[in-house]
């Protein structure tokens, strides 16, 4: 990542493979770190572990920390991104169990593992590491607003936890299959765990967040693509500031708007209705034009995971006809996704 400031120098800096910890989670949307690692770094995941009462599962084998250690795991990763990035007291016994079983702990929460005295003392006693990846690099500048060389694509969402990271990773894979020079630029803890580097945008002091987005996607060859993982939503009552800083700082030439079919209310804020896809496109283009007047929307990534294949295909076609843009579910792929990729590159 030339001229950028990586959080992790290389993927090998993390102890692998992982046991995924799901805490006491009952909302699948909050387990996006675990699902992201399962789907995009599955070869690095040996199983899952959770507190009593958790109802979310990745489908991986349920292993105790001791069993996972025997299966080759070297670390337990907190696979949850709950509101506020807290580490509840109920999580401490299983986290301590992991350390005592010989596993390092890797966290991407706002709450730092190293800031909890009981974890520090047990980690020291057992010679284990506490690794916090949601730590921005030092020396981030205030954004300059200057245009940079190279081409940039940013995934933009109608809400949190609906497919911005998956869409970015799928597009990177498709671009590479076409022989293009492309990098995935991680802007959240899960993306950083997958890519091995990046900047956790929501952990950057607000005045420097757009500057962080600038150094996340530095000057590059004119033919090079940076596909930047989006965060939050420009209409989110809590996280819009992160989304706007990422939009202004990354200066995307292309946006792909991400939406989950059937979601009507903001995750974690059910008293707020979701904006429409049309309103999200309009808002992103108006705000994005401040730092890149040539910004355009290539199409829509539609999460249809709750639908069967036939219904999903019909919904994708109807949404594309309504918007007059390519619409696809990157996980389903197919001709619709090929059309979306071509529109991005047009």
TrEMBL record:
<dbReference type="InterPro" id="IPR011669">
    <property type="entry name" value="DgcN-like"/>
</dbReference>
<feature type="domain" description="D-glutamate N-acetyltransferase-like N-terminal">
    <location>
        <begin position="51"/>
        <end position="136"/>
    </location>
</feature>
<dbReference type="InterPro" id="IPR027417">
    <property type="entry name" value="P-loop_NTPase"/>
</dbReference>
<dbReference type="InterPro" id="IPR035086">
    <property type="entry name" value="DgcN-like_C"/>
</dbReference>
<protein>
    <submittedName>
        <fullName>EBNA-1 nuclear protein</fullName>
    </submittedName>
</protein>
<dbReference type="InterPro" id="IPR035402">
    <property type="entry name" value="DgcN-like_N"/>
</dbReference>
<dbReference type="Pfam" id="PF07755">
    <property type="entry name" value="DUF1611"/>
</dbReference>
<dbReference type="Pfam" id="PF17396">
    <property type="entry name" value="DUF1611_N"/>
</dbReference>
<feature type="domain" description="D-glutamate N-acetyltransferase-like C-terminal">
    <location>
        <begin position="142"/>
        <end position="334"/>
    </location>
</feature>
């Amino acid at each position: 990542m030339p001229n950028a400031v990586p959080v992790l120098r290389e993927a090998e800096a993390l102890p692998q493979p992982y046991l995924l910890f799901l805490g006491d989670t009952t909302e699948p949307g909050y387990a996006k770190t675990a699902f992201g690692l399962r789907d995009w770094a599955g070869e690095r995941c040996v199983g899952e572990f959770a507190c009593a009462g958790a109802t979310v599962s990745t489908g991986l084998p349920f292993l105790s920390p001791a069993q996972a250690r025997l299966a080759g795991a070297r670390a337990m990763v907190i696979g949850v991104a709950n509101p506020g990035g807290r580490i509840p007291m109920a999580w401490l016994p299983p986290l301590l169990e992991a350390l005592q079983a010989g596993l390092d702990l890797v966290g991407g929460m706002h709450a730092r593992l190293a800031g909890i005295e009981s974890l520090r003392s047990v980690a020291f006693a057992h010679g284990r590491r506490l690794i916090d990846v949601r730590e921005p690099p030092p020396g981030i500048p205030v954004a300059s607003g200057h245009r940079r060389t190279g081409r940039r694509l940013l995934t933009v969402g109608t809400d949190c936890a609906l497919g911005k990271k998956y869409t970015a990773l799928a597009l990177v894979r498709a671009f590479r299959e076409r022989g293009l020079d492309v990098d995935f630029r991680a802007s959240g803890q899960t993306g950083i765990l997958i890519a091995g580097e990046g900047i956790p945008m929501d952990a950057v002091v607000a005045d420097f967040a757009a500057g962080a987005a600038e150094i996340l996607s530095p000057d590059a060859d004119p033919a090079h693509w940076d596909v930047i993982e989006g965060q939050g939503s420009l209409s989110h009552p809590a996280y819009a500031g992160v989304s706007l800083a990422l939009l202004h700082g990354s200066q995307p030439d292309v946006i792909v708007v991400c939406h989950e079919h059937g979601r009507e209310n903001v995750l974690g804020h059910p008293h707020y209705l979701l904006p429409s896809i049309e309103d999200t496109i309009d808002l992103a283009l108006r705000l994005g034009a401040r730092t890149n007047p040539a910004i355009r929307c290539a199409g829509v990534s539609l999460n249809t995971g709750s639908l069967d294949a036939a219904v999903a295909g019909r919904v994708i076609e109807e949404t594309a006809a309504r918007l007059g843009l390519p619409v696809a579910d990157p996980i389903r792929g197919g001709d619709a996704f090929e059309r979306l990729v071509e529109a991005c590159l047009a």
